[in-house]
Amino acid sequence: MEELLRRSEKLTTVGQLAAGVAHEIRNPLTTLRGFLQLQLETSKLNTRHIDIMLTELDRINLIVGEFLILAKPQATRFEDKDIRFILGDVISLLDSQAHLCNIVFDPLFCKEDCSISCEENQLKQVFINVLKNAMEAMPQGGQIRIEVTRYGDKEVSVSIMDEGIGIPDEMISKLGDPFFTDKDTGTGLGIMVSQRIIQSHQGTMEIRSTVNVGTTVTITLPLKRDKE
Ligand code: ADP
Ligand code: MG
User: In what residue span(s) does the Histidine kinase domain sit (predicted)?
Assistant: First the structure.
């Protein structure tokens, strides 16, 4: 419980976020400007420069894209959906990529109905973010267990367990900070965006990890309530 409290307290304010975004976007923009200036002054832009420019443009696009998912309140429509079907779709979406990385998804879904009131695309984004992190943590391949468990009439939980590199204790408290990443091409936005989406669904997200053993992310959401 304490852990959950701490997590929701951590959600950053809009101002802090905006400053972070500005900073992260300014770096690639500076590179782009530098190369264009070089071209103007010397006409010496080569394919290597252009490759870097494209990479930097992709990075801006990626960062802006992650925020677009959050910034569409008008488009949000909550509908009743069974979370097992949402997960099934996400698993098929990532299956071929997983196969290429020697990763096997091992779903274990409960038999009962697990309908929740949700914005399907946002929840898909959450599961994509979490599964991608799990895959990226297993460069040698392995198994990712995906469990769906229904608790009475109240809640359903989804646990995603990988056998990856794990997260050192001193890093755990930084998870969910915008732009916190240890990957060369990471944005460090996946967990933050996911936490916000889960929070807007009145749910919780918990991360437990042991270095060199693996990480378990557990997302708990309220079940749809039957009409009175
Ligand atoms: P990104 O994936 O772009 O780095 P995220 O917000 O998705 O950003 O994750 C932030 C960081 O948390 C990652 O860079 C990684 O260090 C750590 N992390 C998240 N999930 C896992 C996992 N399943 N196993 C190991 N480390 C993880
Ligand atoms: Mg990620």
Answer: 20-225
